[in-house]
Amino acid sequence: MLRNKKTGLFTGTMIGLSMAISSITYAQDGPIRISYIEPLSGPFANVGDAGLKHFRFAAEKMNEEGGILGRDIEIVAMDNKQSPSESVQLVQRSIDEGIKFVTQGNGSNVAGAMVEAVDRNNRRNEDNKVLYLNYAAVDPALTNERCSFYHFRFDAASDIKLEALSNYMKDQDNIEKIFMINQDYSHGQFISKRMKELVEEKGMDVEIVGDVLHPIAQVRDFSPYVSRIKNSGADTVISGNWGNDLSLLVRAIDSAGLDVNIYTYYGGGLGTPASVGPRGEDILYQITEWHADVNVDEGHTEYEKWFQEFKERYPEIDWYYHRIYNQMHMLKAAIEEVGNAEDIDAIAYALEGMEFESQTGTVTMRADDHQILQPMYMSVMDTDAKYDADNSGVGFRTVANIPVEQATVDTTCDMRRP
After folding, report:
1. At 288, phi and psi to the nearest 5?
2. Cβ contacts of 292 within 8 Å, gap of 6 or more
3. CB contact burial 311-335 (16+ within 10 A = b; e otherwise)
4. What's the number of CA atoms in the CB half-sphere (13 Å) around residue 256?
5. Which fold has domain 159-296+374-406?
6. E strand or H helix at 317, and its extent?
7. Which of 11, 35, 338, 405 has the most crowded CB, counting CB atoms within 10 A?
8. CB of 241 within 8 A of CB of 212?
9. What is the DSSP letter of 106?
10. How far is Cα 304 from Cα 89, in angstroms, rounded to an integer?
11. Distance from C-alpha of 90 to C-alpha of 48, rounded to nearest angstrom
């Protein structure tokens, strides 16, 4: 009986040891996996699906060129249903599955929960750390008071976008009355507060005639809000809305026949150009790090081939997230500098301060707070653009190239490093 127990114990130990060795071998020789934690169901499923297609296309293109250290990149899709709590659970699932990198971008409330989950794990599990790569969640707090050594943002933060936007708007003579409408969570709340401060700080000769926050992903009819815009006498609307909340807003403004310019963060995003079509010409503006006609203007033919091939693969959407291109290639550069994909601390240090020659010029991952700094573009809908957006027949034309120094703000981050 004792012998059998010992035999059983020995067998179990060997099985466990074999599984551990297999896991280590897989981690070192198998694909480099990145968990994509986004809404793949519910009202923002279209946004999550578009991002997934971007990441998988980028991974495929990079794999064709040898991947990272000769290993393929694999994107593991996980549906968070736009829920912070679901996202935290998926971070833990990623950790349990030995995935070293997680990425997300839709919703700063989700991002905040993920930062906390990653930090908590990395404090408790020195040998099983993960890195969080943020491609679209823009709450400034994430690289200020809530900054983390294990979080890197590849999109411009909301305060940076507002800095660039206000630097453009202050010189426009046709802006006199501004109405702000934003989603009621940290991102929209910040725009509401900070834009009022910038009007004062920059001495803009404008009046804020309306400031509305609405529930995120719950409004189906924006006509009551549009009535308020009309009654305010506004000539300009500013909105940080995204997804269906922006598409429905723009559609309601157009249906009401309002003669206003609409300044957005995500006017070229999935669904919005199709919602407004040619009626948005010279009216719908966006502040972005890139749009398709940038490469036409600046002669970046290789990148044109990249997003043309993406369009051939996915005719229903456009290559929109230039920051995903930057994120994937900068991660590759950091891992290859370190020489392996398992030493998360070393990879994070390699990303800090990295300068990368992107398709729009030099971008820098600021070491102080892990916020990317990059040129920005102000563009407006134009039927004469070479590349249309959303199969709408209308694209975007650059009206201002905003250099890095005019698209940068200071950080209050007090980074804790290992």
Report:
1. -145, 170
2. 307, 318, 319, 385, 386, 387, 389, 395, 396
3. beebeebbbbbbbbbbbbebbbebb
4. 20
5. Rossmann fold (3.40.50)
6. none
7. 35
8. no
9. S
10. 38
11. 15
Q: pLDDT by residue (tens digit) across 104-119?
A: 999 999 999 999 999 9
What is the domain partition of the chain in residue ranges? 10-156+318-373, 159-296+374-406
At 23, the amino acid letter reads: S
3-state helix, strand and coil shares in percent for the chain, rounded to the nearest 5: 45, 20, 35
pLDDT, tens only, 158-208: 999 999 999 999 999 999 999 999 999 888 999 999 999 999 999 999 999
Give the CATH fold of the 10-156+318-373 domain.
Rossmann fold (3.40.50)
Task: Burial-class residue 189 by CB neighbours within 10 Å (0-12, 13-18, 19+).
Answer: middle
Q: How far is CA 46 from the centre of its chain?
A: 15
Residue 243 zone, left/alpha/beta (φ > 0; ψ -120 to 50; rest):
left
DSSP, res 68: B
Residues in the chain: 418
Same fold, 10-156+318-373 and 159-296+374-406: yes
